[in-house]
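Figure S7 source data.
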Amino acid sequence: MTEIKNLTIDELKDELRAMGEKPFRAGQIFKWLHEGVRSFDQMSNLSKELRAALAARYVLTVPEVARKQVSRIDGTVKYLWRMRDGDCVESVLMHYEHGNTACVSTQVGCRMGCKFCASGLNGLKRQLSAGEILDEVLFMQQDSGEKISNIVLMGTGEPLDNYEQVLRFLRLVSCPEGLNIGQRHISLSTSGIADKIERLAEEKLQITLSVSLHAPDDETRSAIMPVNSAYPIERLMRACNYYFDKTGRRISYEYMMARDKTDRPWQAERLARLLRGRPAHVNLIPLNEVAESPLSPSSKDAVRRFQAALQKHGVTATVRRRLGPDIDAACGQLRRRELET
Ligand code: SAH
Ligand code: SF4
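Tokens for the predicted iron/sulfur cluster complex:
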């Protein structure tokens, strides 16, 4: 059966027409769905018959909160959702000055195998549907009672490895009849699947593309990110140029600071050379320690020196603040812990 939340409003109109219903019902149903109703029976402006017909025809996904942790330090909330097949995914709600931000997962697990990341330790279990990704936002908003205004696709999973569903999610979440979160308030982070970046460029979306670069030289990058063997840095940068040419959107580069691995002075110089003259912004992320990974975080001094070296060459770089440190809510720490217990 089709998951009804995967449908766009136009698709829903077609479905209703096919059921012999008036297409304007689609607007009412879409609104209910994007308010996070828990059953078709809650759609109080529809007839009993139509509600029953919908229930017979479609699946309404309603994830359960399997676990919820609130950071005592900064109020960041980490959710573990149990979906209808029992699989679980995590999402994080962060409070920034510019608004509440939902960090959502796009896959159950991840197959990219980055050496520093806890999300991919068990490989890819399955793709999430567009509706399931949307549910993370809808039900975080419902559970917290807080309005979400920004979204980052930086939870578990490689969004461009679930291309169709992620694109559909972007269209659903920015739909004026739904949550209406503008594309400029959405960031998609990728480990650098170059041909998918080029495909995304063709969609001409206004979202921010974040590229997890983490090293400016192929030797280091291939050692920590297997994707670099398929799409080495030069190939990746070509895709980034193309993305900017097509969309006019400045790209953000994530750069993880790992001691004696990615934070060496020559790497700052090399990174500056790579990005100089490009519309780019670098986010320096202190590595979050993951038990299974041999990498350790750079010192504060090393981070500052690296940032200064970039700035000297005119490359803007900020150091990312780490939210929810007491609940492992930070980048790369999301994982399906229930697997281990
Ligand atoms: N798969 C996508 C998006 C999810 S990961 C990607 O890789 O970009 C979100 C961000 O967290 C990425 O920049 C990723 O490289 C980073 N990350 C993963 N593990 C980390 C760790 N242990 N410390 C710091 N950042 C990490
Ligand atoms: Fe997957 Fe991103 Fe983790 Fe790499 S960093 S394993 S791409 S989630």
